[in-house]
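I hope you will forgive my troubling you with a question about protein structure. Here, with my thanks, is the record as I have it:
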Amino acid sequence: MKKISGMAVALMLFAAATLMLPVLMPAADAAVRNYISIVGSSTVYPFATVVAEQFGKTTKFKTPKVESTGSGGGLKLFCSGIGVQHPDITNASRRIKKSEVKKCAKNGVREITEIKIGYDGIVIANSRKAKRMKISRKDLFLALAKDVPSGIGESLIPNPYRTWKDVNPSLPDIKIEVLGPPPTSGTRDAFAELALQGGCKKFSWIKAMKKKDKKRYKAVCEAIREDGAYIEAGENDMLIVKKLEGNPGAFGVFGFSFLDQNADKIQGSIIDGVEPTFENIASGQYPLSRPLYFYVKKAHAGMIPGIKEYIKEFTSEKAWGPEGYLIDKGLIPMPDREREKFRRDGRNLKNFSM
């Protein structure tokens, strides 16, 4: 057998260590970040921020860093990999999509815990200086869809409506001007599904399209016009509130919590005869209500200090219970049994599957 020199052995050991370095790095780097990194939904952001502040004050752990990136943007960051350079938790105002679960798995994020935190309603609000709007989902579809029924057979035309009165004679004769979230937002996704698609279904021939060509049906029902009637206002919902104050003729799309916190300045439109109130959203009567979530990267629970304790704080009765501090911020709580289920899932870091 050929004898290997000491220098050769040293070089071989160095090469092996170099190859193993990427595998060892995440664990070695864990000490670099000693706080929880949270991204995601602008709607869930106020709730997560309050919990983070409470968590930082009452435990030995650092206050988590919470960023408002939108649900889609947050899930993109969350699913990009394992390690301290990636967020630990992402907030979402819609459920994670199958395509996002696949992307997570592709990047090594295979164990995720889903925690539903409560409910919220999407509101169409305007300034209290203006008259309160009473509108239907069909009206909203006709006002904001990219293409609308022509009125002649089963055909579509680019949206010709310029005022609310053009859409429905009973609505005010003012320009259609709606400030809302961008495509990366879960609020935008939910608005498109609950409001626009909800109105789109009122046309029987479009509704029938869903069985024949689901992709085209979704494109027709959820595509928003791009001629200035709908204005993307970013992920900062407070900015929309400020703009509504300065422009009584405009409307804004955002979560109920922002309406609740700014009720002295803005008012929610009545949708299909139902007011956007805490009680109506909790009961499911309000047509634009939706669940809210956050997702936890299980691999980070043993890497970043405080993740399990943060979950415990968020899922405590003093936070999300019927008389918890999150209710003061506009969160609509889940029923007792549902809260108990997600409390248990969170504290056990139960693996999520679709």
Notes: The radius of gyration is 24 Å. Residues 121-290 form a domain with the D-Maltodextrin-Binding Protein; domain 2 fold (CATH 3.40.190.10). The CA atoms of residues 322 and 333 lie 6 Å apart. The chain has a mean pLDDT of 90.
